[in-house]
Amino acid sequence: MATSELRSPKQVEDAAISFVVQQEKLAGREAIDTRYQGAVADLVSGDRIIEVKAAGTSFRGQDLWLETRQVQAARADPDRFWLYLVENVRQGDPAHFRLLRVGGEQLQQLMAKARERHYYEVPLPVAVYDAVLALDD
């Protein structure tokens, strides 16, 4: 079956979440998607709290963006909080995704080097995007 390239960030994120849910099932854990429930991370799976990061290609050498509450959770509960990095997602075929699990002491070493940043998230609704695009045509 042919797969097609994933284009939107939501498509990439959803594919990564689905992939991790399947991988957790193979590991004997049931992952529950908590993204839209106000939870600190994307999934809860067994005793793990999992924040999933998806990359179109690779995370190699890249910074990982975490919310303040995610950093706090990782520091407060180092045995339960995990980062799952799903790479090569944009091409669309889960058979070619790569999963890196970062937890425990390795995650704590990363948390010790975390740099706090402040920024604003400015929504760009579809209607505004389409209106701006129309002006450029």
Molecular structure report:
- This protein is an alpha+beta fold.
- It has a single domain (9-136), classed as 3-Layer(aba) Sandwich (Trna Endonuclease, Chain: A, domain 1), CATH 3.40.1350.10.
- Helix content is 34%, strand content 18%.
- The chain has four helices and five strands.
- The chain has helices spanning 9-26, 68-76, 104-112, 126-136, and strands spanning 31-33, 43-45, 48-54, 81-87, 98-102.
- A five-stranded mixed beta sheet has the order 1-2-3-4-5, with helices on both faces.
- Helix 2 (68-76) links the parallel strand 3 and strand 4 (81-87).
- It is globular and about 55 Å long.
- It comes from Geodermatophilus aquaeductus.
- InterPro entries: NOV_C.
- Residues 12-93 form the Protein NO VEIN C-terminal domain.
- This is Protein NO VEIN C-terminal domain-containing protein.
Question: Can you tag this structure with a few keywords?
Answer:
137 residues, globular, 34% helix, 4 helices, Trna Endonuclease, Chain: A, domain 1, Protein NO VEIN C-terminal domain-containing protein
Main sheet overview: 5 strands, mixed
Number of helices: 4
Tell the overall outline.
globular
Low-confidence stretches: none
CATH class: Alpha Beta
Return the string of H and E elements: HEEEHEEHH
Computed Rg: 17 Å
At the third CATH level, what is the topology name?
Answer: Trna Endonuclease, Chain: A, domain 1
Between the first and last Cα atoms, what is the distance in angstroms?
37 Å
Class per helix and strand makeup: alpha+beta
The helix fraction, in percent, is 25-40%
Largest sheet, spatial ordering of strands: 1-2-3-4-5
Number of spatially distinct domains: 1
Give the number of DSSP strands. 5
Portion of residues in beta strands equals 15-25%
CATH architecture annotation name: 3-Layer(aba) Sandwich
Mean pLDDT: 94
